[in-house]
Design goal:
Helix content: 40-55%
Strand order of the largest sheet: 3-4-5
Structural class: alpha/beta
Amino acid sequence: MNYIWDLIIRAKRNGTDLRDVTFVPARVYSPYMELSHTNLNASDVERTIEVNPYYRFFDIFRDLFDINNEEQVELRETLFDLVIHFLADMDLMQGMNKREYYIRFILNDMHSGVYGKRIRRRLELFGREEQEVIACNMLRLYDTGEAVHLLRDTLVRMFPRSTLYANCEEKDELLLYIGQVERTEAKEKLELILELFLPVRFDTEIYWGHHFGILDVEYTMIQDGIALY
């Protein structure tokens, strides 16, 4: 990690609250690096981060920490921390396109309860990257209306062993094989996916650990391991 944006991304992936991270001007630093790590191979996000403010932001900080200025040190350090947090946010935003902004808006709406209390509660069961997959597919749903395709895509990415079958000959029905033991958390996750992507006209049958039998498909025809349809 050499840039503040790199550190912020790592912190968010680790679930670190950025309000607990404090940036301070480095006392000893390399002119070729923005972050001043004691261990150059460090991968963990520390609570106090030393930054070389002159690496990219010389015009902003050139007069703030003059070696001859010993007045109001605490105020200047607090201001430094606030400005670096602001610059880090700008770094992240500059790498985002219009679509990524929309994804953030959808996630904010979900977390704030715009999609309902059940969605807000169940969304917390997913990791950050999984939440972004859900929001991205919601955006694709608004653009394309391909609900069944996006239901399948989301299902497979959350439950890698899952399979979705469509039975539309006599009625609109979807058969969902999840491929794992039914647990409370997994059930809650599946309920969120269905609530967001399942078209109203479809009925569903859900199979967790045991697949229903399909002729000529060997892994579905295991003795004592076949679910009834």
